C-alpha cells in the first residue's frame, strides 16, 4: 500500500472537499471498463479535469488509484447483487461488513463509504461498529443512505459524511429520473456533518444546484466515467425506447 499523501487530519480532508467535485470511477461487472488500469486512467482524467477526490470500488482499484493519482480516495467494496438495473431490493451491498470496510481502509482509502440504510448487515454488525473499526484504522466514514431518517441515524452513529447515494435504490426512497435534491436539502438542514449529493447527477447544472441546496460536495459517476451506460442512453433514445434513468 502506498502511504496517503494527505494528512489524516479529518478537518483538513473535509475542507479539501468543500464545494468540490468527487468523481466516481467504477464499472459494473462485465463492463469493458472493469479493468484496474482503465479505472486508473479515468481517475487521472478526473484529476486533470479538476476533481477534488476519487470514489472507487474494491480494494485493488482503491490501492491502484491511491498509488497513481494524487487525490484523496473514497473507497468502497460492492459485494452482492446491486439490484440497480432490476429495481429489486437485494439488501446491503456497498461495503456490507466490517471485514469489507477494513479491507478498503487497508488498501489506502482516506474515506470508507458504506451502506448505512436501516437494512440488516450480513455480518450482523451495527453501523456504529463499522464506524468505530474504520476510525481505528485511520480513515473517515461516508454513510451511504436512502432516506432522511437514515441520514440522521448515521450522523448519530459517528459518520463523518452523509451521502444520498442510495436514494432510489433502497426501500423507502422514490426512484427519480434525476438526483434527490430534496433529500440533500433536508439532510443539510438537519445534520452538522457534511452532506454529499450523489446519484443521478446528470449535468453540471444539477451538480451546482446540489451545492446551492446545501451539499458540501457532489459525487458524479455515470455522467463522467461510464461510456457504456452513456452510449446505451443515446442508443435507446435514437431507437425510440425510453432511456433508463
Ligand atoms: C446505487 C449505487 O450502487 N451507487 C454506486 C455507489 O458507489 C455507484 O454505482 C454510482 O455510480 C455512484 O453512486 C454515482 O452515481 P451516478 O453514477 O448516478 O452519478
From TrEMBL:
Catalytic activity: an N-acyl-D-glucosamine 6-phosphate = an N-acyl-D-mannosamine 6-phosphate
GO MF entry, a single one: N-acylglucosamine-6-phosphate 2-epimerase activity
Keywords (A to Z) from UniProt: Carbohydrate metabolism, Isomerase
Cited InterPro entries: Aldolase_TIM (IPR013785), NanE (IPR007260), RibuloseP-bd_barrel (IPR011060)
Enzyme Commission number(s) of this protein: 5.1.3.9
Keyword Isomerase: yes
A Pfam cross-reference name: NanE
Protein name: Putative N-acetylmannosamine-6-phosphate 2-epimerase
Record organism: Streptomyces luteolus
